[in-house]
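ARCHIVE RECORD
Type: protein–small molecule complex
Small molecule: zinc ion
Source of inputs: curated submission
Record status: active
Notes field left blank by submitter.
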Amino acid sequence: MAKQGVMDPLIVTVAPVGAELTPEQTPHLAVKPAQLGDVAEKCQQAGASIIHVHCRNDDGSNTHDVGRFKEAYDEIRARSDLIVQFSTGGAIGMSPEERAGVLDLHPEMATLTCGSVNFGDDIFENSFPIMRAILKKMSELGVRPELEIFDKGHLSNARKLERERLLKFPQHVDFVLGVPGGLDATVSNLCDLVDALPPGCTWSVAAIGRAQLPMSMAAIAMGGHVRVGLEDNIYYSRGKLATNDELVARVVRIAGELGRPVATPAKAREILGLPPLQEQARGALM
Ligand code: KMH
Ligand code: ZN
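STRUCTURE (tokenized, with ligand):
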């Protein structure tokens, strides 16, 4: 995995859907697979290289139905080269088996949240048995994890999984900051987390709500990568709803001002050590 620096290409992940957002909150929530395809195309044009995928039923409710994820994948792949990263976090209340079921489709990447965390009034449960089961399935199926870190102890948990030989470092890590119940989205917390990373890891920041823009700017300046999108923040500015591609375009513009080019999906695969798309036996998902 490549070492990252302040002039290196920036990987922009777009997280357009999530599990918490409702269609009542924004008209820009992609509910149908074809809408996700449209978002993927627009976000790749704007400079994104990874799409983090959750799916919805037509009525907007959450689903981790494997068939729905396959439809979403096909729509995304028909209209973009983006690295497709499935969520194994799902929604609060989903069973671990349901969350991990989408791995059967052999996506290039999927998330692994590295510990339980308060999540508003709920608990996002990621006990060691849950993490081990998801990770075992990922390594059996050759799916690359992105480690989701909501709190500093999640890094300790990841190291424990490494000691258990279920995980090898370096990995690509996403710091999810500002979730009510998780670590606050501050630059000093981010610096602390980056300092605590095992050598060679690449990292990005996903900050919630109005912290998304300033924390993205900090990550760009520090040589990290960024995640934007409606899963984490639905506003472009105070009171003005955003589209996913507008949020991508803004961080790309800011990165350009700071002298950081944007990674194409092919470049992002190279940085992350993923095989090129054309070499993947599963150009279409199984
Ligand atoms: N919706 C959250 C409970 C992930 O995608 O891996 C979990 C989540 C993390 O969004
Ligand atoms: Zn997610």
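CURATOR ANNOTATION: Residues 12-276 form a domain with the TIM Barrel fold (CATH 3.20.20.70).
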